[in-house]
Amino acid sequence: MKCLVLAAGDGTRMLPLTARTAKPLLKVAGRPFVVHTLEVLRGAGVDDVAVLVGWQKEAVVGHFARTDRDLRPTFLEQEERLGTADAIGKAEPWAKGRFLCVNGDVLPPEGSIKRLLKEQKKDPTSVIMTCARVKDPTGYGVVETGPDGVVTALVEKPDRPAGDCVNAGIYAFPKDIFDEVRETPMSRRGEFEITTTFQRLMAQGRLRAVVMEEPWIEVTYPWDLLRANAHLMEGLEGAIEGRVDEGVHIEGPVVVREGAEVRSGTYIVGPAIIDADARVGPNAFIRPSTYIGRGCHVGAACEVKNTILNDGSDVPHLNYVGDSVIMEGCNLGAGTKVANLRLDEGPVPSTSKGRRVGSGLRKLGAIIGPGVKTGINCSIDAGTVISEDAFIGPGARVRGFVAPRARIH
After folding, report:
1. For 275-328, what is each residue's pLDDT tens digit?
2. Where do the structural domains in the chain lie, given as residue ranges?
């Protein structure tokens, strides 16, 4: 069976994390998100995967040329991003029959993929979408079904959802989907959207839904990476390949890659991954669901919790970082602290594409783009977004949104 992974978007809602990194290559549990998706598909029995690339296509293709070469996906290209229906249409020469399709920001459960394959074999003429039940469906396409799972309504981001079943971005298509795509009109947003195609199919009674029960991960906003990271670390198996000094306490599954060093007095509670050539300690505290990237430095009297610290970034002296995502090449000055909890303990809002967005999280620290530097004793409020190459001066307090290359004193 074939599967198309849609990964051509420019990831603007993920800024500043995608300022220099293609969204599919953002790391969770130490590996690019798209790699986890491909491994789930392979585990479910999908033997032929195509990845649709667009923005930063060279980086995505280059990753698989250098690393994870055993996955060997085919690459298709969407030069101009004209919507999801247009993206799916690019696969026609490759598909040549029935195929699955997964949004590139979705980590599908392996069991649901297997079930979807079985459903498609029962009725290969139908278009099938996999749906999930969520607590807050207002940010999704809400799906209503009738007898036998036939979809009767699909409402995008309703203020008052009719149910909790939402479009999970996982589909099974027959060959004639391409005929329907060609007939899909352009939307008001100037795109050819697969949801418009689905409206046509619903009118024909040709769209069915399969509801999955397993945990489902979608990465839409930067803080979603933290949930994906914690989920993927749940089954982590500990492995010590690097240097661990006497006097280091390790509790739970912890991976220390070759070339990494963990110095005396450090306390690590897994699951946690310390990647190659990273240095931790002495006397550091690493708490669960933390990834410390290649060449990073987490130094003396620092505490890092539920955080993704990307390659070459340093948290070197007297720092606290919790529930945060920090991209490559950053340095937090001595005494810089990241708040991750509001005083009223309410959900922490953040910023995406210039507007305030509810994260739905009680604890959320900072989202920090590549190349950011902070001076000593800086305070960063919960939910703050700091864009690439910003400089935060000594003793400054920052909150909300900091623009690219800003200088704050």
Report:
1. 999 999 999 999 999 999 999 999 999 999 999 999 999 999 999 999 999 999
2. 2-220, 238-408
Q: Which CATH superfamily is domain 2-220 in?
A: Spore Coat Polysaccharide Biosynthesis Protein SpsA; Chain A (3.90.550.10)
Cβ proximity of 128 and 172 under 8 Å? yes
Q: Which residues in 263-347 belong to E strands, given as ranges?
A: 267-269, 272-274, 279-280, 285-286, 290-292, 297-300, 303-305, 308-309, 314-317, 320-322, 325-326, 331-332, 337-338
Cα gap 231→313, rounded to integer Å: 23
Distance from the first to the final alpha carbon of the chain = 57
Residue 147 is predicted with a pLDDT of: 81
Residue that has been written with the tokens 């507007």 in this structure: 355
Is the domain spanning 238-408 CATH 1.10.443.10? The answer is no
Residue 271 to residues 47, 140, 381: CA-CA distances in angstroms? 31, 31, 26
Greater pLDDT, 294 or 145: 294
Query: Tokens 């970082």 correspond to what residue?
Result: 321
Task: Please state, for a pLDDT cut of 90, what percent of the chain lies above it.
Answer: 72
- Round to whole Å and give the CA distance between 364 and 345: 11
Look at the pTM and tell me if it is higher than 0.70. yes
Peptide bond into 271 cis (omega under 30): yes
Active site residue 317: yes
What b/e sequence results for 80-108 when a residue is b if at least 16 CB atoms lie within 10 Å of its CB, and e otherwise?
eebbbbbbbbbbeeebeebbbbbbbbbbb
* Annotated active-site residue in 36, 249, 297, 317: 317
> Do the beta carbons of residue 67 and residue 31 sit within 8 Å?
no
CA of 110: how far to CAs of 58, 204, 261, in Å? 28, 30, 35
> Could you tell me the CA-to-CA distances from 3 to 51, 171, 177 in Å, in that order?
9, 9, 14
Cβ-contact 326, 365 below 8 angstroms: no
Cα atoms found within 13 Å of the Cα of residue 67, Cβ hemisphere only: 9
